[in-house]
# Entry
Amino acid sequence: MRTSSKTVYLRLNPAVSTESLAENALFSGWQLKAYAFRKERREFYDTFEWQAFENEVAIVKKRRTLFLVDLKIGKETASIPFPTAPSSFFADALSPGILKAALSTLTDIRAFTRLCSIDTIITTYRILDDNEKSIALLTSESLCLADTEKQEPFVHLFSLSPLRGYDDEMELMVTSLTNDDNIAKALDFRELFLLIMKEAGISVHGYSSKINLDLDPDAPVHESARQLLQFTLSVMRANEEGIKRNLDTEFLHDYRVAIRRTRSILKQLKGVFEPEETAYYLNLFREIGTRTNELRDRDVSLLRQGSYFHDLPPCLQPSLKLFFTDIAVSRKKLHKQFCHYLASDACKSFLDKWEAFVHRQSVPDPEHCPNASLSTASVAVESIKKAWKRVIRHGRQVSEETTDSELHALRIDCKKLRYLLEFFSSIFPHKSVAPVVRQLKELQDNLGDFVDFSVQLHFLRERLAALPPGKEETLLAASMGALMAILFQKQEEARGTFHKTFEAFDHEKTAQLFHDLLKSKLK
Amino acid sequence: MKTIALYSIKGGVGKTAAAVNLSYLSSLLSQPTLICDLDPQGASSYYFRITASKKYNSDKFLKGNKKIYRNIKATDFENLDLLPSDFSYRNLDIELSEEKKPQKKLRKNLEELSEDYQYLFFDCPPNLTLLSESVFAASDLILVPLIPTTLSIRTYIQLQDFFEANKLDRSKIRPFFSMVEKQKKLHREIILEFGDGPEFLAQSIPYNSEVEKMGLYRAPLNAVLPNAPASKAYRNLWEELRSYLE
# Structure
């Protein structure tokens, strides 16, 4: 009894009984036959960034199986055995198959965490036609939140799944049922999903680390800056829980980016806030950032495990295993330390103080903050222009040898410019911002690669220097040497393409894009 | 996808009963199975209580893949679907003769189904026509139920001669005795004389009045009366086929 691709969910008017549903759904000669009754727990999963939902799929665990469900048609498109219901899992850890492949394309870095558990009481009926042939399954489902005191169903619905080849008959039934709003309303799986999330108190799409503000170009810049700072603070707060629960590396990553963005605003918008206060917060944010550096380094190393193993010949791989075990152990310790700090009174009171600051309504003292009342637009234009010129100036100064320190410094300049473009993007027309960011991104990618390789090299060099003598260590040293050779080669490649990449950025066409942006009619 | 045709020039030899029960047994092993009813009488469709959609006809069947795909219907059994026949199939031969390569038509038309099904059974109409030739080309195995009577054997020899004359692969043909009544001397003698042939399947299907009652249950015998003697015989026959195919 294979059901077709489409399941229709119907939300029955509470006043209507199952019997009258049957009366309305069935044509003459058709009948309803009870088929099965069962209780089922369903667990819903997604990443913190809703990557499954974004791609129109839901991940549901039921009957010891994990299903991928198409949000539009409610069809289960892939499944794998999944006997347990972990609070989170990575796509990488699943057994191979279509489902694993699908989740891996959604993300290979984010954990899929359990959103909520739903208990469902299910009664299935077969709809038989006048030949007594089953043509559809009618399932009555009562849903309630699992593990809560309130065990009352929050929704009662019917799903109608036609058997393969009987879609026409189902269309007729659905039309006949939904013709009259007093009987039932069709509900697609997406609506049902949203209903479940709402009941569980979960806001779908409640998180994005991307800046999505709607700044007013005429508003005084201190107000806009506060809006930005409120946003970066909200990102920090949103990621705390995930960091503590150790779900995946991206919580800490986003947390760090939020700190960097915060510091960047404070540093680049000079004369907007009290200098003394600004210095105080900058200092403390630097401290929090520093506390996360080593932890992030370990995360990055562990994330690179796969490619390191891939780069080495099989004879050198075993020694690397131990190396990564050590990294994982030290990461655990660092994670614990940082969580301890996050829970400390010092950290909490600092962030509370900061929260009060970003929500402060009063106009900063004009004597200490001469730029506070300038319009957002003028500050945006000026600061972007300044940052852009700085990138051009410093980039042109980079020598033929393109030393490490030159590229490191230029990368930071680029980042500052990028942050400004992101902060103020909402006041510019999208079509002017996007091409500028695209050009900048190419340069940033080149510099990012370079710095990335140099950080890895540095990390390996330090580890190598600290290796005690021993037989096993000799092998490990050989592996590290091999990796360093590869990384060095890649780093040199990135260095080698710098001047060409920069030339493309320091080009008339790019300059024109910046001019267009800075002169564009603001929203 | 393995394709098995239930075929005989002669009618009333138990083709449909074998197609329905063997396909059901195949589906029990969680192997997606399709039974394709090619007989305009639509007996196997009837056994599964399925009628073709009003829009479906031999034209659509000849158009192939997508048109066919859309008209496949689920039976009441897990993993078993059916492509119903339509009365218009009685003209399939004429329509086929207007096609470019009629012998290859069926195989081409069912190509896409191989992704969905592991086993495909044809329930063929009794005759030897262009459609039969198309079935021969599309099948991995041609199962021929034979009632142990002179006429049945005669048609079987006709079939072999046809294959010979047309240079078709004779090794695809696997006969088995059907509707066997051991108490009849003639049945016993014919089985003795021909049953040893290497192409003959060892398992035969006994005559069982329950098989006729499938028309009342409108379901495979193996699903309704799994312990009936004929059900057991179908089970053994399926096992024999399976080990041969694998």
Observations:
- The longest strand of chain B covers residues 141-146.
- Chain B has a mean pLDDT of 92.
- The CA atoms of residues 34 and 120 of chain B lie 5 Å apart.
- Chain B touches chain A through 16 residues (CB under 8 Å).
